[in-house]
Every structure is written in structure tokens, then in C-alpha cells.
Design a protein that fits this description.
The structure holds two protein chains of two kinds.
Chain A: H1 3-25, H2 28-31, H3 34-60, E1 66-75, E2 80-88, H4 89-112, H5 119-138, H6 142-160, H7 167-198, H8 203-211, H9 220-237, H10 246-249, H11 255-264, H12 266-276, H13 283-304, H14 310-331, H15 334-368, H16 385-388, H17 390-404, H18 410-429, H19 433-457, H20 464-467, H21 474-485, H22 503-507, H23 527-530, H24 548-580, H25 586-592, H26 594-601, H27 606-680, H28 685-703
Antiparallel strand pairs in A: 1-2
Helix pairs in contact in A: 1-3, 1-5, 3-4, 3-5, 4-5, 4-11, 4-15, 4-21, 5-6, 6-7, 7-9, 9-12, 9-13, 11-15, 12-14, 12-15, 13-14, 13-19, 14-15, 14-18, 14-19, 15-17, 15-18, 15-21, 17-19, 17-21, 18-19, 18-24, 19-24
Chain B: E1 6-7, E2 10-11, H1 12-29, H2 36-66, E3 82-95, E4 99-109, H3 113-130, H4 138-157, H5 161-170, H6 172-182, H7 187-216, H8 221-225, H9 242-258, H10 267-274, H11 277-302, H12 304-331, H13 340-361, H14 364-395, H15 406-409, H16 411-425, H17 431-446, H18 448-454, H19 456-473, H20 499-517, H21 520-540
Antiparallel strand pairs in B: 1-2, 3-4
Helix pairs in contact in B: 1-2, 1-4, 2-3, 2-4, 3-4, 3-11, 3-14, 3-20, 4-5, 4-6, 4-11, 5-7, 6-7, 7-9, 7-10, 9-11, 9-12, 10-13, 11-13, 11-14, 12-13, 12-18, 12-19, 12-21, 13-14, 13-17, 13-19, 14-16, 14-17, 14-20, 14-21, 16-19, 16-20, 17-18, 17-20
The chains are: A mainly alpha, B mainly alpha.
Chain lengths: 704, 546
């Protein structure tokens, strides 16, 4: 397949879901249930095409960095703004991930949403989401990335708020969009720095310019800032601390949406972005990324332990796993960060769809019992579902095993690589806190995931509802099975304990940093460049490793594996002791560490803190500004008007009293003299004659 | 140069500008009617005449657009202006002190005025749909409406400062009556405030215009832009003198009031809240652009030295307008009457701030972004005000507290409003994104810190727009709206938006979406003008450090 054909098919892949959106959105009433079939079939075609493109990229062009198109969007006269799209190995893999999960979610939704009155609209939204997400995947430049980034934000807004009659849903969708906007502002600031410096948005052109020594404002610090600002977009989209707050609330959306958007694809976009721009991260930026990820992983894991809502546990687990991916990229374990993105996409989508299956069954059971008050998502209402929903149970259990990092699963392979990476990073840079947080989080992950499984699926029915649940039909179960199977190790590496020899690790080799050596960790600098530096390690340089970090990661592999097995095993054991064998009462433990329990249960009070500070502060500020606007600025305007009015009144009075008074006065004088004169006008000839004579005499007297 | 285009021996720009006057005369000639039937018939005449005239005007504008040469810069070069019409209008010789007074009827367009011409034609045609419900004194309304359109068009085609000023003032009069007679409860206050405020600004403009006339000896804009034409004894001669700075500042204030820029903006919320829907549409869609257009056409090329001297402050004003306007818009949720229209009025202040920021960038991206933002704000805000009008006509309230759950009652309306709101937020794929992004990219090159702070506007913008969307459409439908809007079925046959209203909104939505995907048709016509403009201002004022 030629480059051109491959790109043309990619364009088709991109626009097919948009077509699905347009067909459905304008024919909602006409299509009805057919919308589901249309949407699902279009995604099916998309999936096949994606497989073709990915196969060609991996098999025919495995060593080409990227196959891409660039074109002028519009011209500014002396320069043009360009867009483009490209397929590199990351994009090829992501095409499969996005189209497959989207296809399965479409299929799942044909049953799950079948009783919804806005059924067609749901599928149109799924279409526009898939389009936007594929746009991110195929972006070969920052501007494309940003455009689709925002469109994904819109689709997510529409889907979270799909049941907009519920206030909680419309609040959650608004919160998601605005929180993401905060990250996007940083992202866009990073783009502005990049465009200012390099006059292009293209990834490859930016990288080659940095490599040749062009730095923003000729400063390594600003390069660090640019990296961190671009990464801010990922903090928002991938729900990293401190912008993670929207993701748990986003669970208000329909569960297939949670699986598609808030587990497997959209939230992975941030990680994907971080991977795409990985070469520009300086040492400081990498450290920042690593700590952000590690802390997020840790914090979310602590919260996940105490939540009782089925989907919320999964949501915090997602935040935590995203933290793992981000941390992995931050410490430089590029391959494993992306690997975890892919493996996590399968098993987390599986977990979410299984939760959807459970909630669907609970709903039906409640319906039968005429119960409209219980919470179908509360795990305390479940229990024993193993018996009524065996297929859902088995797939869920397998995905739980995978996320906990038990051997023979994909999750083990990717997580093991990440943990080895953190150890290597700790060893080389001295940042030991990162591996510490990583291992503790891994242990907690195993614990809370098994807690969730045991409480909801094992034991006896805790309520009548649970006992009345039934396994769902094929449209719901089939996606679960597919996703569970994909969580086996064998798809990525034939060696179940080491992924480094598998095709995946070979296809996603670590990428070289382009940052000048003075701003980068020594151990991140490629060996073939090291000749230029004064590194004494050159002689030890092995041909098979990109840099010292990769070598160290390999050395840490077995340490990490044993440690992670031990800690995951401990977590699983603990949850069995607590919830299955009930040797220890979890409530008592919770009471004995009340403050810690409350901290976790209340999600570290972060929402409350934001409410008090940022939101409260903004509201206060708006009130202040509006007060200024009304009373100071407009007050001044009205004040001036008032003064003029007073002045006008005064002038009016003056006019009436003085000017007009004078006029009237003169008139009065004339009138008065007139009245005197009038008295003289008696009408008698004698008087006139007399006066005339007096006049004549006076005249003559005056004359002589 | 592209030749003048005549119809019946009269230039096409004159046709475009004065066609509405013909319509106005026709409307005035038709009697309003005595009984109900003849009144209804006359009302229809008025509507269709207005719609017809503005539509022909739109067609003529498209003819101009099709003949428009994208590569001719214009700005300070009279020979590269297009569709020129030039005759002596007033010529008096031998006046004491003044000598010869010569005022020309001088029309012409370049890449700055062409987009504005298109915008004016589009908005004034579509706003007629929003005027469909006017019943009170319809004759006067439509006559005034057409007079207003003439004034607006005139401003965008005039190349003689005096002529420009005449059109500028001409537009005030119908606007005053349109708000003052057909407005809301506080219409008199709003109308007088608008009138006096704008007049106050005009006084500054008039003073500077006269000073420039004395310096140059004509009202020709191109002479005023050419330093060699200045009388060397004039106080405005030379570059970088305090008199020039003062003159620029006065001119700037005159235009800034129209934009409006904080702190000269308080007439705007009042005028918008009180004005009838169509007039709000015109006000936000076209009138506000006259302020920034005046800056680009007159103030900037005539005083490039002063532009450079004040440039940082102009950027700061832009930033303040963006953030302050957004905060005031957001404040409509926490204080006041929670008036949806007032919120949108403040959002205009914020969005026009982007234009100022882009102008202050003084580079290709920034200025193209600024002018494109003028165009986009015109179309998007026109949509927003029409949308408010739709719900107000039905519910007779604009308070956000009174709404909720409209999404199920009015699904098509919801879809249109979602497009408009997201366009206002700057969502990619819609036109607002392109212009805002260009403004930011350009402004960052000149003033990185101001630009990043201005970025807060995009977060706050998302805040108030989504909040409003939620308040109106989501949640539960209040009990009072559970029935149909119009139980008699006379005015509103069903609950959703009707075809007349869609007639105004859908074309705008198409423009917004189309330009979001392909901005070339508008950006293309301004590139050579803007590049020339940027060069002129930078070299003209010898801008150091850029």
C-alpha cells in the first residue's frame, strides 16, 4: 500500500464517524432504533479500515517515523497556517484502540440504551465523539491536536449531560468542560510559545528546530515551561491532579459513555499528547510530569479504597491508572507508558461495560420490584451477583486480575515495565519518592479492585434486587468477552513475564529526546550523541539501548517484578481477609483511623476546597466587578448626567429668574411708565392742548 | 485598478448605500391603513419592502465581492482602493480664515471595508426577520430601520473624513428613535444614554477632524495619512509631538465609546437590554464594529507614531475589556436580575476586547485576527441576540431563573443555541475559534504576558455561556411553561422555533460553521490590506523593538 493510499484510508477512517453523526442527527425521528444499527455498522467498517492501516504501518513501513500530509489551511499573505494528518506507530495503534472500543460500545449501547427516548441522538453523539477522538489520533501538529482536543471536549460535554433532566448530569458536564478549559488554556499558551518560536505547529518541524538549537526566547527555562504548558492540556484531559475533579463526576453520563470516553479513549488523549511531544521535555519538565503522575496515581488510589458507588470506584481507579501512564512517560519509560495506555484501554473498558451490565441488570430487577428509590450503583446493594450474572462476573474478574498486575495478563506486562522505569529513574536521578508512590499505589489498586469484586459479586445477595438480577443478552456480553480476551498477555509478547522481547516493545521503541544536553538528564541523552558530551559512560554503552535509562530499566526489571508481585499479592490478600473471610471488620479499621478514612471518603476534600477558593473567589470577584460597573463606572456616567441636570436646572432657574426676569423687568418698567402715561391720556382736548402748550414752552426754554 | 461598476450611471457603492433611502421613501408613501385589514396589509408591505431592499443590497454587495481584487492593499493608497466614486460635494471658495472649503463625495473600499460591507449586508438582511413581530407604529420602525442601514453602509464606504462623519452621525438619529420608541421599560433612559454618550465621542472626533483639516487643507483621508501633505506650521505636523498624541487620544476615545471599551462601555448593557431584538442584533452585529473600523481606517494610519507610543496601553485596554467584560457577564448569575440579554451584552464587551488585543499585536496574525473577529463577533452575537429574542417573545421574561428544561420543549431551538453559544466560546470548527486563535497567536508575539492573562477570558467565557445554556435548557421544565406558549395557536403554532426565526438564524449558523472550517473567503480579502497596514504603522512610527 502506497503512502498516499494509506493516508487516504486514514482520512476515510476519520470522517466516517462524522458521517454517522450527520446521518443520524438529521433523521432522528425517521431512524429510531435503526440509528443503532447504522452507527454500529459504520464503526464496524471503520474498525476494518483501521486494522488495514495499522497492519500496513506495522508490517510494510515499520521503520518510517511518520507517514504524513501537510496542507495550507489558510494564508495570511506572508505566511500560511498549515494543518495535516499523519500516521506513526502510536497513531496506528490508537486507531485500533479507538475504533474497536467505539465499535464495541456502539454494539453494547444498542441494548443498554434501547429504552431511552433519545436513543438516536445518543448514537449521533457517539459518532461525533469518535470523529473528534480520531482527529486527535491522526494529528501531526499542535493546531490539529488543539482543534480536535476541543471537539472532544464538546462531545464529552454532550455525552456526560445526555440525561440533562438530572441536575447532577448537567452540572457534571459543565464542570468537565470548564475544568478542561483550564488545562486547555495552558495547552494553548504552550502552543503560542511554540508558534512564536518555530513559526510552525508541525511536530517534526518543531523537533528538528529544537535539535538544531532553536529555543524559545533562547532559554532552556522557557523550553521547560513550554513543555509543562503543553502538558497542562494533558492534566485536564487525562484527569491528573489538580484537574482530576471532573472525571468522577462525569460518571453521571450513561455507562457506555464512561467506558468509551472516561476510561479508554478521551482520557487517554492526554497521555497520547504527552507521548507525542515527549522529545521536547527537558529534565525539569520530565520531573514535573513524573511527580504529577505519581501523585495522581497515589491520591486517586487512596480515594478508590473507600468509595461505595460502583462506577466511582472505577473512576478513581481510572484516574490512578492514568497517573501511572503519565508517571511512566515522566520517568522516561516511554514504551511502557504507551503500553499501559493500550492494555488499560481494554481492561478498563471491560470493567466499565461490565459495570454497565450490572447496573442494567439491577435496573431491570428494581423495575420488576417496583423499587424506584434504591441506588442501582451502590455496591452495598449488590452481592452474590456471581450466581445470577456468571458471564459478567467472569469477564469482570479477569479484568480485575489484569488491572491488579497479576502475571499472564497484559496489565502485568505494562505495569511491570512502568514500575521498573520508576525504579530506574529513582536510582539514576535520586527521586525515590516516585517509585515509592508507584509501588504503594499498585498495592492499593489490587486491594480496592478486589474489594469491589468481592463486595458486589461474591457472598450472599445483600438485597432482594440483587437476587432478582439476570445475565444480559449477547449485545452486552459479547463486548465484555472480547475485551477480556484482549487482556491476555499473548497479544503483546509471547513471554508472559517480560514484554521487552515482544512485538509491542519493538514497535514502540523509546524515542530520542531533542533537548540540548545541558537541559536534559545525562541518562536520557542517546548514546550515539554521547560522544559529543564528556560522558564517561560511553565505553559501557551497549548497542541495544538507546540511553543509560533504558539500560537501567532493563536491570531493574526483575527487582520491579518481584516487588510488584509481592505488593499486589499483599493487596489482594488483604481484601480477601477484609471482605471475603471477614476476619477483620473494615468499619472498625476505618473508625480507628477516622481522619484518614474521612480524608479518603471525602476525596481529600478537593471539591470543597475548590468550591471555597476558586469558584467562591471567582463569584466574589464577579460581584465586585459588577458592583464597580454599576456604582463606579456607570455611577460616574450617571453622576455626570446628574451634575449636568442640576446645572441645567440651575441654568433654567437663572434663565427664568434672572435673564427672563430682566426681560420682564424691562417690560415691567415700560408697563409701569405706560400706566403712568396712560393716566395722562384722558381723552380730553383741553388736557392735550394744555400738555402741548407746556411741551412747547419747555422746548422753547431748552432751545434758548 | 478594478473599474467602477455602474448601474444606471450611478456607482454600485452609492446604490448599496442609498438604496435603503429609496425603500424608506416608499414606506413613508404607503398609508398605514385605517381598519385592521388594511393595517395588516400595509404591515406586510413594510416588512417585504424592507426585506426586499436589504436583500437587493446583499446581492449588490456580493456583486462587489465577486469583483473585488484581493491583491490591492488600499489603506493609505488612494490608487489601490476599489470601486471608487469621487465627485466634489461642497465647494465654497474665499471663506474668511478657511480659504477654500472642499468636501468630496468620495467612496471606495479595500480589504478592511469589504468584510464590514458583507457583514452589514448580511446582518441587516437577517435582522429583518427578527423585526417581523413589530406591530407598534410599524411604518416608522421600518423607515427608521432603512435609514439606519444607509448610515452604517455609508460609514464603511466613505473615504472623505467629513462624509464619514456625516454618516456616523446620521446613524445616531434612527438608532435613538428605534431604542426610544420600540424599546423595553427603560427605553427613554437607554436611548438618551446611548445618544449622549455617542455624541460625546463624536465631539472629540469632530475636533480632531477640524484640526486635521486645518493641517492638511482637505477632508480627504489619504491626505491626512500622508505626512508630506501637512502644513509645516500646523500643530499636527511632524511625528511624535504631544499635540499629535493628544489628537490621537481624542480620536481614540471617540471611537472607543462606540466599540465600546472599558470604561466607556456602560451605555451598551442598557441599550441592549432595552432595545428591540432586531436593533440589538444590528447594534452588536454592526454598530460596535464601526468603532474598531474607525480606528483601523482613520486613527491608526493617520497617527502611526501615536499608535506606537500608546500601543502597550491599547493592548492593556484590550486585556481589561476581555477579562472585565467576562467577569461582568458571569456576575449576571450572582447578582442583578439574571438577565440573559444583559449577560450577552457584557460578553460583547469581552469579545470586542479581542479585537483591541489583536490590533495591539500589530502584526499580520493579530490584525487579521482582529478584523476577522469583528466579522465573526458580528455574526455570532447577532445569533445570540436573535436567540434571546425568540425566548423573550414567548415567555416575556429574560430572567434565567424563570427557565429550565427547554431542551425537551424546543429541541431545534436548543440545537441552534448550542451552536451559537459554542461559537461564542470559541469552539474549533466554528468561526470564532479561528479569529480568537489568530489574535492570541499574534498578540503573544508582541505582549506575551497580556495575552496569557487575556486567556482567562476563554475560561470565564465557557463559564457564563455553559451556565446560561444549563439554566435555560437543562433540568426540569418549570410548571408555568408546561403548557403550549400560545394556547390559541394564532401566533405560535407549535412550541419550537418558527420558520421566520429560523430564516434569520440558519443562514448565520451556516456562515459561522462554514468560516470555521474554511476561513479563506473572509481572510483572503483582507490579507494584502492588513499586511500593508501593519507595515505602514510599523514603519510610519518607526516602531522600535518589533
Amino acid at each position: 500500500m502506497s503512502h498516499d493510499l494509506l493516508l487516504k484510508i486514514s482520512v476515510v477512517i476519520l470522517f466516517l464517524p462524522l458521517l454517522s453523526f450527520l446521518i443520524i442527527v438529521f433523521n432522528q425521528k425517521r431512524l429510531g432504533k435503526a440509528a443503532g444499527i447504522i452507527g454500529t455498522s459504520i464503526l464496524g467498517i471503520d474498525l476494518v479500515l483501521a486494522a488495514i492501516v495499522a497492519f500496513n504501518k506495522f508490517v510494510v513501513y515499520p521503520n518510517e517515523a511518520i507517514i504524513q500530509w501537510k496542507f495550507h489551511w489558510f494564508s495570511l499573505g506572508n505566511r500560511t497556517i498549515d494543518l495535516g494528518l499523519g500516521v506513526d506507530n502510536l497513531a496506528a495503534m490508537m486507531l485500533i484502540v479507538v475504533t474497536l472500543i467505539s465499535f464495541l460500545v456502539h454494539l453494547f449501547s444498542t441494548e443498554y440504551m434501547s429504552e431511552d427516548k433519545r436513543f438516536p441522538r445518543f448514537f449521533s453523539y457517539l459518532g461525533i465523539f469518535t470523529f473528534s477522538m480520531l482527529g486527535i489520533v491522526l494529528a501531526n501538529n499542535l493546531l490539529n491536536m488543539y482543534i480536535f482536543w476541543e471537539l472532544v471536549g464538546l462531545s464529552s460535554y454532550l455525552l456526560i449531560g445526555f440525561w440533562y433532566e438530572k441536575d447532577s448530569a448537567s452540572n457534571a458536564s459543565k464542570k468537565a468542560f470548564i475544568t478542561n478549559r483550564v488545562g486547555d488554556l495552558g495547552f494553548f499558551a504552550g502552543i503560542m510559545i511554540a508558534f512564536f518560536t518555530f513559526n510552525t505547529f508541525m511536530f517534526d518541524e518543531i523537533f528538528s528546530q529544537i535539535r538544531s538549537g532553536v529555543l524559545p526566547f533562547e532559554s532552556g527555562t522557557i523550553l521547560t515551561a513550554m513543555g509543562i504548558l503543553l502538558f497542562a492540556g494533558a492534566i485536564g484531559k487525562s484527569a491528573q491532579f489538580p484537574l482530576h475533579v471532573w472525571l468522577p463526576d462525569a460518571m453521571e453520563g450513561p455507562t457506555p459513555v464512561s467506558a468509551l470516553i472516561h476510561a479508554a479513549t478521551m482520557v487517554a488523549a492526554g497521555v497520547y499528547l504527552t507521548a507525542k511531544i515527549f522529545p521536547v521535555f527537558t529534565a525539569d519538565a520530565l520531573t514535573f510530569v513524573a511527580y504529577t503522575g505519581a501523585f495522581t496515581a497515589f491520591m486517586a488510589a487512596t480515594i478508590g479504597i473507600t468509595q461505595n458507588d460502583f462506577k466511582r470506584v472505577l473512576a478513581y481507579s481510572t484516574v490512578s491508572q492514568l497517573g501511572f501512564m503519565v508517571m511512566s512517560l515522566g520517568v522516561g519509560a516511554y514504551t511502557y507508558g504507551f503500553f499501559h495506555l493500550v492494555t488499560h484501554a481494554w481492561f478498563k473498558a471491560c470493567l466499565f461495560l461490565a459495570s454497565g451490565s450490572v447496573i442494567h441488570a439491577m435496573h431491570h430487577a428494581m423495575h420488576k420490584l417496583h423499587d424506584h428509590h434504591s441506588d442501582p450503583q451502590d455496591i452495598r446493594n449488590m452481592g452474590g451477583l456471581r450466581k445470577t450474572m456468571p458471564k459478567t462476573y467472569l469477564t469482570f474478574l479477569f479484568a480485575t486480575i489484569a488491572i491488579s498486575g497479576v502475571p499472564l495478563t497484559s496489565g502485568f506486562l505494562s505495569k511491570d515495565g512502568i514500575l521498573a522505569g520508576t525504579l530506574a529513574f529513582g536510582n539514576l536521578s535520586g527521586h525515590w519518592l516516585i517509585p515509592a508512590m508507584a509501588f504503594i499505589s499498585a498495592g492499593m489498586t489490587a486491594f480496592y479492585m478486589f474489594r469491589l469484586t468481592i463486595v458486589s459479586f461474591f457472598g450472599d445477595f445483600k438485597t432482594e434486587i440483587a437476587s432478582k438480577t439476570h445475565e444480559n443478552n449477547t449485545q452486552i456480553v459479547l463486548p465484555l468477552v472480547v475485551l477480556a480476551i484482549l487482556s491476555l498477555w499473548v497479544f503483546y509478547s509471547f513471554n508472559p513475564i517480560d514484554a521487552s522481547s515482544g512485538w509491542f516493545a519493538k514497535a514502540f521503541k523509546p524515542v530520542e529526546t531533542v533537548v540540548p544536553a545541558e537541559y536534559q538528564f545525562d541518562f536520557m541523552m542517546p548514546y550515539h550523541d554521547a560522544h559529543a558530551t564528556e560522558s564517561t559512560e560511553v565505553s559501557h554503552g551497549s548497542h541495544s539501548y538507546l540511553n543509560k535509562f533504558e539500560e537501567e530499566l532493563h536491570h531493574q526489571h526483575y527487582t520491579a517484578m518481584f516487588l510488584s508481585l509481592a505488593i499486589a499479592g499483599f493487596g489482594i490478600l488483604l481484601s480477601f481477609i477484609f471482605y471475603y473471610y471477614k476476619k477483620v471488620d473494615p468499619d472498625k479499621v476505618a473508625n480507628s483511623i477516622k481522619p484518614l478514612y474521612l480524608l479518603s471518603y471525602n476525596k481529600w476534600y478537593i471539591d470543597e476546597i475548590y468550591q471555597k477558593t476558586f469558584i467562591g473567589g471567582t463569584i466574589l470577584l464577579t460581584k465586585l466587578m459588577f458592583w464597580i460597573d454599576t456604582y463606579i463606572i456607570d455611577g460616574a456616567v450617571n453622576g455626570v448626567a446628574f451634575i449636568w441636570r442640576i446645572f441645567g436646572t440651575f441654568v433654567g432657574k437663572f434663565d427664568n429668574g434672572v435673564v427672563d426676569g430682566l426681560v420682564n423687568l424691562s417690560g415691567g418698567v415700560v408697563g409701569f411708565s405706560g400706566s403712568i402715561v396712560r393716566k395722562l391720556q384722558t381723552g380730553r382736548v383741553q388736557t392735550y392742548l394744555l400738555l402741548s402748550i407746556i411741551g412747547v414752552i419747555l422746548l422753547l426754554w431748552w432751545l434758548f | 485598478m478594478s473599474g467602477t461598476f455602474n448601474i444606471l450611471g450611478v456607482g454600485i457603492l452609492t446604490w448599496i448605500t442609498f438604496l435603503p433611502i429609496l425603500g424608506m421613501i416608499a414606506i413613508l408613501a404607503i398609508p398605514s391603513g385605517k381598519d385592521e385589514i388594511s393595517r395588516a396589509r400595509s404591515l406586510n408591505y413594510f416588512r417585504y419592502i424592507t426585506l426586499g431592499i436589504t436583500f437587493i443590497q446583499l446581492i449588490l454587495t456580493l456583486v462587489v465581492y465577486s469583483g473585488f481584487n484581493f491583491s490591492m492593499p488600499g489603506i493609505n493608497d488612494a490608487s489601490s482602493m476599489q470601486f471608487i466614486e469621487r465627485v466634489t460635494w461642497i465647494s465654497v471658495t474665499g471663506l474668511p480664515m478657511l480659504g477654500d472649503l472642499k468636501i468630496e463625495y468620495f467612496l471606495g473600499i479595500d480589504g478592511i471595508s469589504m468584510p464590514m460591507l458583507l457583514l452589514t449586508a448580511i446582518v441587516s438582511t437577517l435582522a429583518v426577520f427578527a423585526s417581523w413581530g413589530i406591530k407598534k407604529a410599524a411604518k416608522g420602525y421600518f423607515a427608521m430601520y432603512l435609514l439606519l442601514v444607509t448610515g452604517m453602509m455609508g460609514v464603511f464606504v466613505a473615504l472623505d473624513f467629513f462624509l464619514f462623519y456625516v454618516f456616523w452621525e446620521l446613524m445616531l438619529l434612527p438608532m435613538y428613535f428605534l431604542i426610544g420608541i420600540w424599546g423595553g421599560p427603560r427605553k427613554e433612559y437607554a436611548a438618551i444614554k446611548f445618544f449622549l454618550y455617542t455624541l460625546f465621542g463624536s465631539v472629540f472626533m469632530l475636533l480632531v477632524m477640524i484640526a486635521l483639516y486645518f493641517a492638511v487643507g482637505s477632508f480627504n483621508m489619504f491626505d491626512m495619512m500622508d505626512p508630506s501633505k501637512f502644513d509645516q506650521n500646523s500643530i499636527l505636523a511632524g511625528f511624535g509631538t504631544s499635540w499629535r498624541y493628544i489628537a490621537f487620544a481624542a480620536l481614540f476615545v471617540g471611537f472607543a465609546i462606540k466599540v465600546p471599551i472599558v470604561p466607556f462601555h456602560t451605555w451598551l448593557p442598557d441599550a441592549h437590554v432595552e432595545a428591540p431584538t432586531a436593533i440589538s442584533v444590528i447594534l452588536a452585529g454592526v454598530l460596535l464594529k464601526m468603532g474598531t473600523y474607525g480606528m483601523i481606517r482613520i486613527a491608526w494610519p493617520m497617527f502611526p507614531d501615536a499608535v506606537q507610543y500608546f500601543n502597550w496601553w491599547i493592548g492593556l485596554i484590550g486585556m481589561v475589556s476581555i477579562v472585565y467584560g467576562a467577569l461582568c457577564a458571569l456576575a449576571q448569575f450572582s447578582v442583578g436580575k439574571r438577565d440573559l440579554k444583559k449577560m450577552i451584552a457584557y460578553s460583547s464587551v469581552s469579545h470586542m476586547g479581542y479585537v483591541m488585543l489583536g490590533l495591539a499585536a500589530l502584526n499580520t496574525e493579530g490584525v487579521i485576527g482582529a478584523i476577522f473577529q469583528m466579522f465573526n463577533h458580528g455574526t455570532i452575537t447577532a445569533m445570540l441576540f436573535m436567540i434571546v429574542g425568540v425566548i423573550y417573545d414567548r415567555a416575556h421574561t429574560r430572567s434565567l431563573d424563570d427557565f429550565g428544561g427547554m431542551a425537551n420543549k424546543m429541541p431545534v431551538y436548543t440545537a441552534i443555541m448550542t451552536i451559537a453559544f459554542f461559537a461564542a466560546i470559541g469552539l474549533p470548527g466554528l468561526s470564532g475559534f479561528v479569529s480568537e486563535a489568530l489574535v492570541f497567536l499574534g498578540a503573544f508575539k508582541t505582549y506575551p504576558v497580556l495575552t496569557v492573562i487575556s486567556g482567562l477570558g476563554i475560561i470565564l467565557g465557557a463559564g457564563y455561556m455553559l451556565w446560561a445554556l444549563q439554566k435555560v435548557f437543562f433540568g426540569k421544565l418549570p410548571e408555568r411553561w408546561s403548557g403550549p406558549w400560545d394556547p390559541t395557536g394564532k401566533i405560535y403554532k407549535n412550541d419550537d422555533i418558527n420558520y421566520i426565526e429560523l430564516g434569520g438564524l440558519v443562514p448565520l449558523a451556516i456562515v459561522v460553521i462554514y468560516l470555521g472550517i474554511n476561513p479563506n473567503p473572509v481572510i483572503g480579502m483582507m490579507t494584502s490590506s492588513v499586511n500593508h497596514f501593519v507595515e505602514l504603522i510599523r514603519i510610519g512610527g518607526n516602531f522600535a523593538g518589533m
